[in-house]
Amino acid sequence: MLKLLRSQSLLMRGIAIFVPLLLANSGLFMLIHRNQLQAEKENLATRTARQIEQRKLALLGGVREVVADLNFLANHSDISTLGASLLQPPDDGETVTIFVNSLRQKLNRDFFLFVDQKKLYTMVRLIDRQGQEIVRINLNSTNERPEVTPIDELQDKSSRYYFQETIQLGKNEIFISPFDLAKDLGKVKRPFLPVIRFSTPVYSAQDDKAGILILSVFGEILLNEIDQRETGNEEEGQTNEFMLLNAEGYWLKGLTPEDEWGFMFDQGQDRTFANAYPQVWQSMQTEVTGHIETTAGLFIFSNISLLAEVQKITNQAVRGVNVDGSASYSWRIVAYVSPQTLAGLSNQIYAQLLPIYLGIVAILAIATLIILRQLQAAEKTQARIDVGVMAAEKIAAGDLTVHFDTVDTSDGLNRLFEAFEYTTQSLSKLIGQVQRSGVEVTTSSTQLASNSQQLQATMTEQVATTSEIMSTTQQIAATSEELSKNVSRVADEVATTAFTADQGLSELQQMKQTIQQLSAATAAIANRLGLISERANMINMVVTTITKVADQTNLLSLNAAIEAEKAGEYGAGFSVVAREIRRLADQTAVATLEIETMVNEMQSAVSTGVMEMDKFTQEVNQSVNSIESISQQVALVIEQVQNLTPKFAEINQGSENQSLGAQQISEAMGQLNDASQQTAKSMQDGTNTIANLQQVVQGLQQEISRFKMAQG
Questions:
Q1: pLDDT, tens digit, for every residue of 320-369?
Q2: SS3 626
Q3: What is the pLDDT of residues 304-323, one digit of tens each?
Q4: Of 79, 126, 165, 289, whose CB has the highest number of CB atoms within 10 Å?
Q5: Are 83 and 211 in contact (CB under 8 A)?
């Protein structure tokens, strides 16, 4: 019965170990499966997003080709010539008709070859600026052969929106119509013919607007770039389905043909992606690119703003029905991954992880069995451990007389008991030795305490002595430092005095130069005054000459008067002249006398000025000599002061060295004082430590005394 209970207990332990490990492994398996599945979905979304970008580039590449064809045809020389003929016809109407028809036939032929070669356009039209078709080439969708429209079947398109929008554009601007289905007489053509129109104004050779050129593109060719079912990852068996939506959420390319072009029919207005997948559609309104997973599947999407993209790749102004960037031209490429595909991906990951999971379960089962066997052996060992614990408790109580029973086995527990037995014996020997050593330590510590107290008293006296020495050295250092500062101040004053005297010497030198310049100026003035005196002497000579001339003139006038008296009435006129000459001579004599007086006065003034200038020059020279003497004396004083400066520097250096030495002595004594105090403190600590050691030894002896040891 006891064996059965033990067996049941061991089984329950096994279940308690295995079940939590199994649950933890299962939870880890589910977590890894979920993370792996999420990572695979993210990889799938990333790969599909790249495929969408490739399709977007292919679609825009087709649009770029259409714009290039439109620009090429719009610049056709025959179109320019035809436009000029329609705008400004010659007087002869019949000639105009022949000429226009000739150009129309040539354009029909060129457009025919163009459409036949491209196979991209369902219709190419040239319309004049009144809205009348001039040339129209249709591509028969059945045999894919171009057809030239006869003249009598050409129509007036002036009321069509694409004509009215395009005719208002400027040169090189492009109009793009909404992407829809072609209509015939107001009804959608059957089978469906998706079409999008690109148009631009055409101009005459004189740059006058002549009409418009329209290229109607096979929409199916563009939609083929968004292939409905494209293999996303053939090696993993995953298939993605691609859709193209307009801004209102209608399918331009859908999962099924019945879903497509719902906005073209009254009964299809509710067939929208927004109604089928509202949660996905709402997410698309806030993000340009991204992906979202719902119960309906995984959707990866990217937006295309057709007008902006065309303008960017062509660098031309592009317009739509509702002007730039309207919602009608905002498309969305959507890739769809069905729930079945996602479930298959989950199953594939599950299949990959299942062998690993089962292998771990098997390992856990084996580990549980091993643990159960270890538990069974542990129960047997537990009884022996209990016996060992009881013996260890006795040892802890101080009974070292116990013995451990060992068996003839080599397991770890038997080795542990043998170690305990050996430890007990060694501990008995150690305690005996500790008791003997305790007595010796007590005796030694008592003697050491006495020596320590004596040494402490000696160190206390040494601390007092070093404190007095340190105070004295600090006073010496302070006195030396003050002396050094006083010497430094005296040296600074001497240097300042030398500098000031040097400046005074420089100013005396400048004064000497100024007085020398003044002396030179006075000499120059004296020279000028001498020159003026010489010129005055020359003026006297001239005055003397003028006086002589005046006397001769007066004599001549007297002779003339005498001769006039002799001539009688015939000499009356000559007598008047003689009288005027005499009067002029008298005036000249008077003026000459005044000039002579002024010149004499000027000569006297000049002579006086020359004498004064000579006297002033002598005084200036004396001042120069005095300044020279003063400068020499000042220079001697400066030299003596400057000689004092190095001596003061030497005295200052000596004072500083003395102050530094005193400071070093003070610092050394401070360090010695600190060391002495530290030593005294250490001695006190040593005394306290010895006291503590005595207390510890006493406590140790008390603790050892409670051990019970075997005798002998």
A1: 876 444 456 888 999 999 888 888 888 888 888 888 888 888 897 888 78
A2: helix
A3: 888 888 888 888 888 887 64
A4: 126
A5: yes
- Cα dihedral value 105, 111, 116, 117, nearest 10: 130
127 has which bridge partners? 133, 212
Residue 387 is encoded by which pair of tokens? Answer: 């016996």
Nearest residue to 238 via CA among 82, 44, 30, 516 = 44
Dihedrals phi, psi of 326, to nearest 5 degrees: -70, 165
For residue 25, give every residue at least 6 positions away whose Cβ sits within 8 Å of its Cβ, in sequence order, or none.
Answer: 357, 360, 361, 364
pLDDT at 93 over 70: no
What is the full DSSP assignment across 451-487? HHHHHHHHHHHHHHHHHHHHHHHHHHHHHHHHHHHHH
| Tokens describing residue 132 | 């009348």
Q: Could you tell me which of 618, 614, 314, 672 has the C-alpha nearest to residue 459?
A: 672
Torsion of CA 579, 580, 583, 584, to 10 degrees: -140
- Phi, psi (degrees; rounded to nearest 5) at 449: -65, -40
Structure tokens at 165: 């929008």
Q: How many other CB atoms are found less than 10 A from the CB of residue 594?
A: 11
CB distance 460 to 678 below 8 Å = no
- Asked whether the bond before 191 is cis by omega within 30 degrees of 0, the reply is yes
Closest CA to 241 of 252, 232, 251: 232
pTM reported for the whole predicted model: 0.50
Structural domains of the chain, with CATH:
75-218 (3.30.450.20), 415-704 (1.10.287.950)
φ and ψ of 710, to 5 deg: -70, 145
- What would the two tokens of residue 29 be? 């398996």
- Which residues lie closer than 8 Å to 105 by C-beta, 6 or more apart? none
Q: How far apart are CA 552 and CA 585, in angstroms?
A: 9
With a CB cutoff of 8 Å and minimum separation 6, the contacts of 650 are none
Three-class secondary structure of residue 264 per DSSP:
helix
Residue for token pair 């400057």: 642
Most confident of 311-315, 472-476, 659-663, 692-696: 311-315
Per the structure block, which two tokens stand in for 575?
Answer: 């007598």
pLDDT for 15-74, tens place per residue? Answer: 878 788 888 888 888 889 888 888 888 898 899 889 889 988 888 898 999 999 999 998
Q: Which residue type occupies 290?
A: G
| Contact between residue 206 and residue 84 where contact means Cβ atoms under 8 Å apart | yes
Centre a 10 Å sphere on the Cβ of residue 331 and count the other Cβ atoms it contains.
22
- The structure tokens listed for 78 are 């025959």
Helix (H) or strand (E) holding 133: strand 133-140
Cα(153)–Cα(162) distance, integer angstroms: 20
